[in-house]
């Protein structure tokens, strides 16, 4: 689960994967009691067909809420993706990457957990996404991506 960094319409908001397959949006008035939520992102591409989840809290942009995702495809192969939610109503999915932002390289098949990329968050600095991520639960690295290029690649 990951909280949005600020209240939206006077309520707390959180992303989670309460059904172990989809990304859900839940809201709360007090951080203790959460509504049942609404499913906002479901797996639809081959690289995320088993399940999809968020990688940390949403990042607020002028264009909306950027959510870094991880998708699980065939043979438990984890890739990183991204989607954009409406800034005023994050239950509305505006766009998402049809192809992974980052996928395991052939050399990433060895390690404690092979074929897996994961991240617990990212940040934006001067319209550049800075994304730390782990590979095969064996080491970490960083990627940087232009926000404008990332948004242009979304469907």
Secondary-structure blueprint of this entry?
Layout: E1 2-3, E2 12-16, E3 23-28, E4 38-41, E5 51-54, E6 59-61, E7 64-72, E8 78-85, E9 93-96, E10 117-118, E11 123-125, E12 128-135, E13 139-146, H1 147-153
Antiparallel strand pairs: 1-2, 2-3, 3-4, 5-7, 6-7, 7-8, 8-9, 10-12, 11-12, 12-13
Please supply descriptive tags for the structure shown above:
mainly beta; 4-stranded antiparallel sheet; 155 residues
Oligomer: single chain
Provide the helix percentage: under 10%
Describe the biggest sheet? 5 strands, antiparallel
How many β-strand runs? 13
Structural class: mainly beta
Q: What is the H-and-E element order? A: EEEEEEEEEEEEEH
Rg, Cα atoms, Å: 15 Å
Question: Helix count?
Answer: 1
Alpha carbon gap, first and last residue:
25 Å
Give the overall pLDDT as a whole number: 93
Low-confidence stretches: none
Net shape? globular
* Portion in beta strands: 35-45%
């Amino acid at each position: 689960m990951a909280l949005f960094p600020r209240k939206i319409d006077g309520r707390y908001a959180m992303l989670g994967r309460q059904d172990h397959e989809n990304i859900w949006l839940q809201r709360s008035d007090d951080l203790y009691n959460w509504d049942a939520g609404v499913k906002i992102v479901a797996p639809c591409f081959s690289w995320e067909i088993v399940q999809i989840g968020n990688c940390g809290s949403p990042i607020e942009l002028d264009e909306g809420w950027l959510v870094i995702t991880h998708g699980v495809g065939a043979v438990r192969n984890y890739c990183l993706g991204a989607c954009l939610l409406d800034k005023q109503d994050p239950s509305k999915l505006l766009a998402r990457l049809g192809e992974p932002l980052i996928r395991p390289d052939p050399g990433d098949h060895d390690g404690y957990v092979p074929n897996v990329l994961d991240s617990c968050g990212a940040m934006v600095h001067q319209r550049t996404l800075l994304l730390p991520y782990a590979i095969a639960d064996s080491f970490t690295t960083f990627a940087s991506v232009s926000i404008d290029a990332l948004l242009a690649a979304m469907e």
